């Protein structure tokens, strides 16, 4: 059974290399196994990654500004902060993959 998560942000990461640099800058050892110049907006499906010697990849699907707003509107009882301009949807299975998603979602500060 897979799990999912959505990360909302005001910071748009352009390339996988930029995303990797942001992950390293906050001190995590997650390695995104993709070409550094690959555009994050072009992701859609499995993004291989490794964390502490384990496969920690996940499915990643970027979403636009309208989708970020729609995510917030779907749960009016929750204060999501914001307004948010970017959203990434993640799907994953297993502990290492969940860790990969949690680490990958960190460099998305407001």
Radius of gyration, taken over Cα atoms and rounded to an integer in Å: 13 Å
* Apparent shape: globular
Percent range of helical residues: 25-40%
- What portion of residues belong to β-strands? 25-35%
**What strand line-up does the widest sheet have?**
1-7-6-3
The biggest beta sheet, please?
Answer: 4 strands, antiparallel
What would the average pLDDT be, to the nearest integer?
A: 85
Low-confidence stretches: none
Helix-strand category: alpha+beta
The helix/strand series, from N terminus to C terminus, equals: EHEEEEEHEH
Count of individual helical segments = 3
N-end to C-end Cα span: 31 Å
Number of beta strands: 7
Question: What's the helix and strand layout?
Answer:
Elements: E1 3-9, H1 16-25, E2 30-32, E3 45-47, E4 49-51, E5 54-55, E6 58-63, H2 65-73, E7 86-92, H3 95-104
Antiparallel strand pairs: 1-7, 2-4, 3-6, 4-5, 6-7
Key descriptive features of the protein:
globular, 7 strands, alpha+beta, single chain, three-stranded antiparallel beta sheet, 3 helices, four-stranded antiparallel beta sheet, about 110 residues
Structure characterization notes:
- The protein is α+β, with helices and mostly antiparallel strands and 110 residues long.
- 26% of the residues lie in helices and 28% in strands.
- It is built from 3 helices and 7 strands.
- It has helices at residues 16-25, 65-73, 95-104, and strands at residues 3-9, 30-32, 45-47, 49-51, 54-55, 58-63, 86-92.
- The strands form 2 sheets. A 4-stranded antiparallel sheet has the order 1-7-6-3. A 3-stranded antiparallel sheet has the order 2-4-5.
- A hairpin with a 2-residue loop joins strand 4 (49-51) and strand 5 (54-55).
- The chain is globular.
- It starts with a strand and ends in a 6-residue tail after the last helix.
- The mean pLDDT is 85.
């Amino acid at each position: 059974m897979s799990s999912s998560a959505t990360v909302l942000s005001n910071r748009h990461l352009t390339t996988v290399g930029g995303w990797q640099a942001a992950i390293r800058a906050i001190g995590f050892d997650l390695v995104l196994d993709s070409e550094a110049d690959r555009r994050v907006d072009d992701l859609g499906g499995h993004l291989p990654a490794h964390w502490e010697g384990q496969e920690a990849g996940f499915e990643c699907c970027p979403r636009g500004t309208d989708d970020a707003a729609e995510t917030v509107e779907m749960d009016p009882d929750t204060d999501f902060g914001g307004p948010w301009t970017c959203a990434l949807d993640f799907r994953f299975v297993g502990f290492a993959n969940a860790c990969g998603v949690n680490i990958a979602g960190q460099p998305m500060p407001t």
